[in-house]
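Hey, quick one: can you model this chain's 3D structure?
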Amino acid sequence: MARLSYVQAACNALHAVMQQDARVVTLGEDVGRGGVFGQYRGLQQAFGAERVIDTPISEATIMGAAVGMALAGLRPVVELRVVDFALCAMDEVVNQAAKARYMFGGQGRVPLVARMPIGLWRGSAAQHSQSLEAWYAHVPGLVVVAPATPQDNHGLLGAAIASGDPVIYMEHKELWGLEDEVDPTRIERLGVAALRRPGSDLTLVTWSRTLHDALAAAETAQDEGLSIEVIDLRTIWPWDREAVFASVQKTGRLLVAHEAVQAGGFGAEIAAATAEALGVPVRRLGAPRIPVGYAPPLEDAARVTPQAIVAAARELVGAPARGA
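Sure thing. Here's the predicted structure for all 324 residues.
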C-alpha cells in the first residue's frame, strides 16, 4: 500500500501496463512532457517517443489514428485533455470506434481507452467544465467509466485497457490532487459499483467527484437522524443494476445525484429503471441547464453541493429541515 494522488495512481497504473504489454501505446497532445495534469509524467522517458506519442492539436486526427492502431492490434490510450475538446472527435468515437466490432461481426475490435477529463475546475468556464457522460452512455458499443478515488483510478484504468472494447474514461479535474491509500495489486472489474457507506432510509447513487459531496451529505444527514446509503456507480455503462436494486429494496427510496446537467442526465436512466423495476419513490439531483460561468458566484450556481443533496434527501423521505 502507498499513499498516492488520483493523478499519480493512474500514471503508475499506465506505467505498469505498458511494462507488461508492448501493444499498449499512448498518444495525445503534450503527453511527452507529462500531460496537462501530470498523468503521463515520466512515461516517454521510460518507453520512448514511439510508444508515448506527441500529436498535433487535432482531436479528430488523434482519435482516428487511435482507431486505426486498435484495429491493427495495438491497445492505444488516447489523451484528449478535457471532454469538451473531445467533441471535435465525436465522429471517430461514435461512428467508428463504437461501431466497428458490430459492423465487422466481431472480426475487428477497437480496444482503446479515451481519457476525457470531466467536470468543474475552478475558473475554467463554459468550454472547459462539462460533464458529458450521458452522451457517451447513449452510444451502443462504448463502455463509460468515472473513477472517484485514487484506488479506482489505478484499478479501473488497468481494467479499461484490458477490456478489449472502446472505453470512455472520465477522470474529474478537481480530483487530480486527491490522496488516499492505493493497493497496486487489487484487481477491479468494470460494471461493478462500490458501497461507500451503509444506510437504511434512502439509497443515494452517484459517481465521480459528486461521491465526496454525497459522503459529506450523508454525514450531515446522520446528525439529523437520516441514514443514507451511498453507492458509487464507478462504471456508467454498464451500470450495476443488481447493486442499486438490492440497496433500494432495502431502503425503499432512491436519490441520484451527479454534477452533469440534470436535464437528460444519466441519473434519469437510473431513476427510471429503478422505478419501473421496484415501484419506489425516486428523485434526481443535477446541475441546472446553464453554461458554467467564469465568475465564482456563477460557477457555484452550477454546483451540486452537500447542502443541496441533504435537502433533496429530506424532501424524499419527508423529513423536516432542522429547526422546522
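One thing worth noting: The chain has a mean pLDDT of 95.
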